[in-house]
Amino acid sequence: MSGSAFNVFKSRVPVAWSPRLYITLVRGLPGTRRLHRRTLEAMRLRRCHRTVEHRTTPSLLGMLTQVKRLVAVETEEMYNARKQAEAERRALRPPLVVSHRPPPPTPKPAAAAAEGAAANAQ
């Protein structure tokens, strides 16, 4: 997830129903209410920018409404698309070959060499 946690929170769209939800903690725990910290602990979210996978249940949806400003929720399709984009960004690229040697002198054509030799002889 690029950008700040606020941008992630601000750009969230309503999530369509999905059998599995991927929940990422995008804001830190210090300064939050104890109830919210315990809710995140129940969802196995203990560190920032960690993602967990959960089945969609009414109790999970209730927990998400409680801590909605601290987490980002993705469906399986959204999660896979994000991971694929990250993998493409991190993929190895062909190396750049930089040569610091001066280019070799280009050989003169035979006709130009003969004219140059005749000019030198005179």
UniProtKB/TrEMBL annotation:
Protein name per Swiss-Prot or TrEMBL: Large ribosomal subunit protein uL30m
Database matches in PANTHER family: LARGE RIBOSOMAL SUBUNIT PROTEIN UL30M, MITOCHONDRIAL RIBOSOMAL PROTEIN L30
GO biological process, one term: translation
Lineage of source species: Eukaryota, Viridiplantae, Streptophyta, Embryophyta, Tracheophyta
Protein family according to the UniProt entry: Belongs to the universal ribosomal protein uL30 family.
Compositionally biased tracts (Low complexity): 109-122
Record-annotated Large ribosomal subunit protein uL30-like ferredoxin-like fold domain positions: 22-71
Keywords: Ribonucleoprotein, Ribosomal protein
InterPro entries per record: Ribo_uL30_ferredoxin-like_sf (IPR036919), Ribosomal_uL30_bac-type (IPR005996), Ribosomal_uL30_ferredoxin-like (IPR016082)
A GO cellular component entry from the record: large ribosomal subunit
Organism: Miscanthus lutarioriparius
Molecular functions (GO terms): structural constituent of ribosome
Ranges where the record places region Disordered: 84-122
Keyword Glycoprotein in annotation: no
